[in-house]
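Exercise 7b. Backbone tokens:
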């Protein structure tokens, strides 16, 4: 099943090293930020470092694909109810067997459920393994609290507090933890979790560019009107509050001429398509072609999002790279992604305020704001910067801690020279 390159099983101080990504949050058809991260990281490792990369994700069947220094391992998992594009790994023994076979030097855990403890159990058997966690979603708020309140009312708060305890117990086990912004890092600090760093994500500014604009895009979607074309790209589900965008469209006068395209898939999509049958809204589905996605963003006029618990927002900076002002909410990472002058933020769940902000941006100098957004992304966000920090700082710190754990002198910085 697995290739037998004994060169990957050398001591942690040797070169090259084997890095493992471990996540539930992957889908070839509905994937969002983590799927983008996995793809960009693969390209970075193969083109800019001498290291090997093992990526373990859920799939329809057990399958390992080897492409040179990249190994893509799928673990058979059932679809998530209500989100058929996603699967959830429960067969942790299969993951443990993969980890024991490959013996990665660094395991990076990218989601909070089940698999972090699979990595922790592996580290207990192989204590020289360095564990790094990406705290990418404020899941006690975004997932647990929202769902528990809906199911159990005020009593659901108990599940929220339990999830905070789970966070503390889990992430204290890791040698290094990174967040995507200072706000999330402060959240972990309040829970007593140290050894943290901030890792801003990036965007391909050559791909996501205003020059990808297609003047015929709106007509091909069958959307009438001469007002702004609004766009949202992401999961169409409760976590993203996608239904608020449809509600916002009902607050825009018909003679304003606005239309909305919601790119993505999710459990709310069929319902919202029915609810929006009388509105100028298109639901083209999840876009697997990144070039086509870049063209769709560049062909719109404003980017809209109602997500209140975003920890970074890759789709936001992709839209900004395409030259779009942003209308969002003043919560989560959105204020950091949309500083003054790059868009307008309103109260969470206030769809009337969101509609007013759409009108205000469109009636102002939205072209200048879009150009400023593009310049902002060019200055601050690139995948090379992201992975240079990950490989040059966060991983070496985790490896040094792993060396201390087994009583071995820490190796020289192995990634800084990559």
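Sequence design result:
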């Amino acid at each position: 099943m697995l290739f037998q390159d004994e060169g990957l099983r050398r001591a942690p101080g040797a070169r090259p090293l084997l890095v493992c990504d471990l996540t539930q949050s992957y889908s070839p058809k509905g994937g969002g930020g983590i799927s983008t991260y996995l793809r960009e990281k693969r390209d970075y490792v193969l083109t800019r470092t001498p290291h090997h990369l093992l990526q373990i994700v859920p799939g329809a069947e057990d399958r390992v694909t080897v492409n040179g220094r990249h190994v893509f391992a799928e673990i058979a998992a059932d679809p998530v109810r209500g989100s058929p594009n996603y699967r959830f790994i429960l067969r942790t023994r299969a993951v443990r067997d993969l980890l024991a076979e490959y013996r990665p030097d660094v395991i990076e855990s990218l989601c909070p459920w089940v698999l972090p403890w699979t990595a922790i159990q592996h580290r207990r058997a192989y204590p020289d393994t360095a564990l790094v966690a990406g705290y990418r979603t404020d899941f006690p708020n975004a997932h647990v609290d929202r769902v528990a309140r809906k199911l159990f009312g005020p009593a659901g708060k108990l599940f929220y507090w339990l999830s905070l305890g789970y966070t503390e117990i889990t992430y204290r086990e890791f040698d290094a933890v990174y967040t995507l912004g200072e706000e999330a890092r402060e959240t972990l600090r309040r829970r007593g979790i140290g050894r943290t760093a901030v890792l801003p994500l990036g965007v391909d500014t050559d791909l996501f560019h205003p020059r990808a604009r297609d003047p015929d895009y709106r007509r091909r979607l069958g959307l009438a009107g001469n007002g702004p074309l609004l766009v949202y790209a992401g999961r169409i589900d409760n976590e993203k509050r996608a239904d608020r965008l449809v509600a916002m469209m009902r607050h825009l006068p018909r003679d304003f001429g606005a239309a909305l395209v919601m790119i993505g898939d999710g459990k709310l999509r069929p319902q919202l398509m029915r609810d929006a049958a009388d509105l100028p809204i298109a639901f083209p589905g999840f876009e697997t072609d990144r070039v086509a996605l870049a063209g769709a963003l560049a062909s719109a006029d404003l980017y809209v999002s109602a997500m209140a618990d975003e920890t970074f927002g890759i789709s936001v900076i992709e839209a900004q790279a395409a030259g779009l002002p942003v209308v969002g909410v003043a919560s989560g990472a959105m204020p950091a992604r949309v500083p003054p002058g790059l868009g307008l933020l309103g109260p969470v769940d206030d769809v009337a305020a969101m509609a007013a902000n759409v009108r205000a941006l469109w009636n102002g100098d939205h072209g200048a704001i879009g150009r400023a957004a593009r310049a902002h992304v060019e200055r601050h966000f690139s995948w090379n910067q992201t992975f240079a920090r990950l490989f040059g700082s966060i991983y070496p710190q985790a490896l040094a801690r792993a060396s201390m754990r087994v009583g071995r002198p820490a190796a020289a910085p192995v990634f800084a020279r990559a």
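Instructor comment: The longest strand covers residues 52-59. The chain has two domains: 6-202+382-405, 210-380.
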